[in-house]
Design a protein that fits this description.
The chain is mostly beta strands and 494 residues long. 15% of the residues lie in helices and 37% in strands. A hairpin with a 2-residue loop joins strand 11 and strand 12.
Length: 494
């Protein structure tokens, strides 16, 4: 069986089955990956200016995080949650309810057991941190989502039942509160000021080991992940494991710059790729959750993607920057503003768009009903459009046998869509890919994809595609629909 790479939300779950005889299932401790060297750069407290240093190679000095752990470790809490799984039949996914918030953990990490047909109590562990002395705590939404009881344990061994004030699944942020006063708190930092390569520290409860500190460096910023369109993640190599979810990520000044949320793994355990939600994103969500119990976001109704060199050349751009619109939802704010597939959004409300992930974040932070200017490149020309931001919302094809035609220069064998296939696509015309080779295969075009346009020109016949390909330059952009998504794919032709 092939190994599947998955993004893992790092809640530690333990299941206790209410079975006659008191039988139960648990996870035994295993050897954890060694924490990355805590020592990588300058001391925790360093002078902002250096006296005339001799020229020579830059050498990293050991970093001592002990002061940060001592000062802010007491503000990091252990969170245990209890939920009740619904009764399920024997043939349902190894006895686990797919709607239960902890079932995904067992699919990935748990032993494959046949559980009895009776209610089960589900327990999970995560982390969080105190942001106000009166008991306000930030954590991940997936830690407390669906929980019937939430218990917070402090480093001084006090325990409190917590109330969930609100959760936001889009950002994976939750706010909970405990009834206590004069609690230790963390300091909130500014993620925009940290740099790739700087040391960072995580504190949490991996596998239930309270107040565990691990360190590493910032590997990248503004990272976009599948199904997480509104969070520009901070990527680190800090050792993060199940149970770390919701814990803080500290910079060298001891300020929280992120919330540890996911890992990229083939095994379910840490493999050097950890992702944290920037704290500024989290605090905006926190304010809305505390005030309203929910989060309101702006929306445009577009799908966007990054440009690479080939795509930027196809659209007549000198630099690969901005957010390329691959589709526009009919009747959406973007549609009403005149935005089109193939437009490149360069700025929104005066904020430059360098990567596609920048746009959803800016739009989401905009109040619905606001009228905002957008700088857009279309056909090699820059223009300004005004859009009235709406309020948040969200959209299958199989290759069937039929007559095909080989598109030599593209390396595509395609045929027109049948009426039924067009109906499945909402009446949209296009060409169904039956086989891909050469440039198309290299670019990732697959059988079953639907070709909608070439360099912005819609295609509905084989002859039309052949003509457009013959007249195109070395680089072309195909608008392709695959499943529920539309995306521009660059092809370098012979």
């Amino acid at each position: 069986m092939s190994r599947r790479i998955v993004f893992v939300r790092n809640t530690l779950a333990v299941m206790i089955a209410a079975v006659v005889g008191g039988s139960y299932v648990y996870f035994r401790g295993v050897d954890l990956p060694s924490a990355h060297a805590a020592a990588l750069n300058a001391p925790v407290v360093a002078s902002s200016t250096a006296s005339a240093a001799p020229a020579g190679p830059v050498v990293a000095a050991p970093t001592d995080f002990s002061g940060i752990v001592q000062r802010y470790g007491p503000a990091v809490v252990n969170i245990s949650v209890t939920g009740k799984a619904r009764k399920v039949s024997d043939d349902e996914d190894n006895g686990l309810d797919p709607n239960d918030p902890f079932s995904e953990f067992f699919k990935r990490f748990g032993p494959q057991l046949q559980m009895p047909q009776q209610p089960r109590i589900m327990h999970g562990l995560g982390s969080g941190f105190i942001i106000s002395p009166d008991g306000l705590i930030l954590t991940n939404a997936h830690v407390v989502d669906g929980a019937q009881e939430v218990v917070v344990k402090l480093t001084d061994r006090r325990e409190f039942k917590a109330k969930v004030l609100g959760i936001d699944k889009q950002s994976d942020i939750a706010v909970i509160r405990i009834d206590a006063k004069n609690l230790p708190t963390v300091q909130i930092g500014d993620p925009s000021r940290v740099k790739v390569g700087q040391p960072v520290l995580a504190i949490g409860s991996p596998y239930g080991f309270d107040n565990t500190a691990t360190a590493g460096i910032i590997s990248a910023k503004s990272r976009s992940l599948p199904d997480d369109n509104y969070v520009p993640f901070i990527q680190t190599d800090v050792a993060v494991n199940p149970g770390n979810s919701g814990g803080p990520l500290f910079d060298l000044n001891g300020q929280v710059i992120g919330i540890n949320s996911q890992i990229y793994s083939q095994t379910g355990g840490f493999q050097g790729l950890s992702f944290s939600i920037p704290i500024d994103v989290a605090m905006k969500v926190e304010q809305q959750l505390v005030t309203h119990g929910k989060v309101t976001r702006g929306r445009l109704g577009v799908s966007v993607q990054d440009l690479n060199q080939a795509l930027s050349e196809s659209f007549g751009m000198k630099k690969a920057e901005g957010a390329l619109i691959s589709s526009v939802e009919k009747g959406s704010p973007a549609d009403k503003a005149g935005l089109q597939a193939g437009d490149v959004i360069l700025s929104f409300d005066g904020h430059a768009i360098n990567h596609s992930v920048d746009l959803p974040t800016l739009v989401a932070d905009t109040a619905p009903g606001s009228n905002k200017p957008m700088q857009v490149m279309r056909g090699g020309k820059v223009m300004t459009l005004n859009v009235t931001v709406g309020e948040m919302k969200q959209a299958k094809n199989e290759a069937k046998p039929g007559k095909s035609d080989d598109q030599g220069r593209l390396g595509l064998s395609v045929r027109p869509l049948t009426k039924d296939e067009q109906a499945q696509l909402g009446g949209q015309k296009g060409l169904l890919v039956e086989d891909a080779s050469g440039p198309a295969a290299i670019a990732g075009i697959e059988s079953g994809d639907v070709i909608l346009a070439l360099n912005g020109s819609p295609v509905s016949s084989v002859a039309q595609l052949r003509k457009l390909a013959s007249e195109a330059g070395k680089n072309v952009a195909l608008l392709v629909e695959r499943g529920d998504e539309k995306i521009f794919v660059p092809l370098t032709l012979n």
